[in-house]
Prior knowledge:
The chain is an all-beta fold. The chain is built from no helices and 11 strands. 27% of the residues are buried.
Amino acid sequence: MSVSKTLCQLTTIPDGGAATVHVESSTGGFELILTRQGGHVAAFHNECPHAGRRLDWAPGQFLIENGLLVCAAHGATFRVESGQCAGGPCRGVGLRAVPVEVIDGEVRLP
Length: 110
Ligand code: FES
């Protein structure tokens, strides 16, 4: 059974920026990166495909340049809207995306 789960309010994610949320699960949970472009939000696991590190340079703090999310560890770049690898040591492997939806100003897992 799957239940819609609210992750955060849309307005807590800076427009054009990103934030993190922790999702509880029976196996201890995981952390998601939420990127926002206006009213659209995309979500990815906060784990870089290069060496498995977090992408933020401090908890919840991301470097985003020209629509690209830059991994703080070794500089791999990913498109904020799709998580697709755009350059650097990710070598064509993108971030693992998770479907989310924005309803009534809330970001939710469907
Ligand atoms: S772990 Fe992200 S670029 Fe190396």
